[in-house]
Amino acid sequence: MLVEGRIVSIQQNFSGNIRILKARPARLLVETMIDGYGTVRICFDGTNAWQSEPNQPLRRLSSSVIQDLREEADFMPANHLSDRVKRVRFEGHNIVNQIPCNRVQVICNDGSEVFEDFSRATSLLVARSKPGRPTELYGEYRAFGGVLVPTRVETRRDNQAEQIVTITNVTFDVVASSEFDSARYDFKLRRGFLAPTRKNTKGEFDRVDGAVTEAMDDLGIPGLALAVVRNGKIVKAAGYGIADLQNKTPVLCETVFEIGSMTKVFTATTIMQLVQEKKLKLDDTLTKWLTNCPPTWRRITVRRLLTHTAGLRQSVYWGTLFREIPDDEIIREAAKFPLEFQPGENWAYSNIGYQLLGAVITRATDMPWPESLNRRIFEPLGMMNTERLTASAKASHRAIGYSLADNGELKRGLYDPSGTAAGSFLSTIGDLAKLDAALYVDSVLTQKTRAQMSQPARLNRGIVNWYGMGWFLDEYKNHRMVYHGGDTVSGFTSLLMRFPEQKLTIILLCNRVGVDKQRLGRSVADEFLSLPAENAR
Fold first, then answer.
1. Residue range(s) in the chain whose domain bears CATH number 2.50.20.10
2. What is the pLDDT of residue 79?
3. Of 8, 350, 384, 498, which is least surrounded by CB within 10 A?
4. CB contact at 8 A, 50 and 43
5. Can you tell me the distance from the alpha carbon of 44 to that of 181, in angstroms, rounded to the nearest whole number?
6. What are 49's strand-pairing partners?
7. Which residues belong to CATH 3.40.710.10 in the chain?
């Protein structure tokens, strides 16, 4: 059985195409083609399980994960394998998603239990859950090859959506055993195309330098610029590796990188400045500022755009490639698509939402949004190396972006000069450090506004505790963390990771897409979080 469709992981903030191969006995292969990152493969061959992804060595999965994969391979929606089930017991009636259901308890041979809810009207599976695990909701059944299959599967935990899979095609055929051979999916990085990473800037080579260069060698990162900011001052800045492989140009602290979706911090900050100035309100509807909006957008507010709770899809264009896209065209194309959900009902990362915010800035300030960002943020803070990414961008000392090919070698990233309010801009670690310092004082935003931006977004039924307004929210080693990163089809990864109570910020810019930026950022943060602010180096 081959299942193909789209996946949106709300909890992990990615979207992409999904391909699921199932084979008997008890075999499962899931391939997720993540937009802007690459293909992640999880395979269970009946005994062992492994995972591969770009730039990472093949790794075996734990016994608990193997058990979950075994269950997924054994339980098809609304279709049990009788030899895996010990007994089934009727548990009574209940309501799931406003659907009257019969609930049954399935006791498996290994002693585990699963609860399943079937529609009383159609007898189709509506929900499946296991104690302590997320609930899966099944809906929008369609017939494929005479078999009814749910084409929408939503995973929920504590009434919060974590993942949505939309199935577009199902075919039934024999899956070759070779598909489950681990060697087939072991795309390890080819050694030898990069020399060992060197630090290019002055200063003693310390533990942070060692951790960064080791990670760069392991992950095949050509070049990286790092800044650590404490109390608004840079306490460490360094460039590592190569900015341009062809010309062997080293990365320095002044090297300019594309920052991708980190641009959303600039856009959100400008919107909140306009709110402070009472030039717009968070609860203004989009139709107040933009014309020719479809009827479905009438309930979308500025707040919903800022918090990714408007119901808009992620993007219209998956990388514009070779041309700049005017805002009017983006809006016109976005209006053709239905909402993923009603505003405020859910959370889904949306580039379109921030592209629309750019258009709102243009209308509210009577000048193009890039000029507003420049006048309101970049010029006052002296961010002279930050500018919109366009074909005519003038920044010098620019890094070249790269991605990892399936053969394990680096290839130059795709050309994408779109430069929208969702991403991307060009910047340096020095300029981003200036922005970070400004966000601790009232020069750009008041303390009240800054606090408002780092409050969890509120849905109609509760809160989303991982996103505010232009910032992701998290905790690391009991320290509150706000951050935003970016990944671009042109081959760049960026991270601005802030620990407000410690007044500590980690800034990473590198010229390869698909890097585990959280791992890199946290490894650097580990060296500073244990130090009191006054004793930080």
1. 2-170
2. 41
3. 384
4. yes
5. 10
6. 44
7. 207-530
Question: Are the beta carbons of 353 and 314 closer than 8 angstroms?
Answer: no
The whole-angstrom separation of Cα 256 and Cα 510 is 10
pLDDT of residue 189: 47
* Strand (E) or helix (H) holding 125: strand 125-129
The proportion of the chain whose per-residue pLDDT surpasses 90, expressed as a percent, equals 49
The CATH code that applies to domain 207-530 is 3.40.710.10
Rounded to an integer, what distance in angstroms lies between the CA atom of residue 277 and that of residue 283? 15
**The pLDDT value given to residue 390:** 79
Mean pLDDT, residues 80-92: 69
- Interval 145-186: pLDDT, tens: 778 889 999 998 777 788 899 999 988 777 777 777 776 665
How far are the Cα atoms of 38, 454, 529 from residue 448, in angstroms, in the given order?
40, 10, 26
Topology of domain 2-170 in CATH is outer membrane lipoprotein receptor (LolB), chain A (2.50.20)
Q: What is the pTM of this model?
A: 0.69
Spatial separation of the C-alpha atoms in residues 516 and 133, rounded to whole Å = 26
Q: What is the pLDDT of residues 20-43, one digit of tens each?
A: 887 766 788 898 988 777 788 898
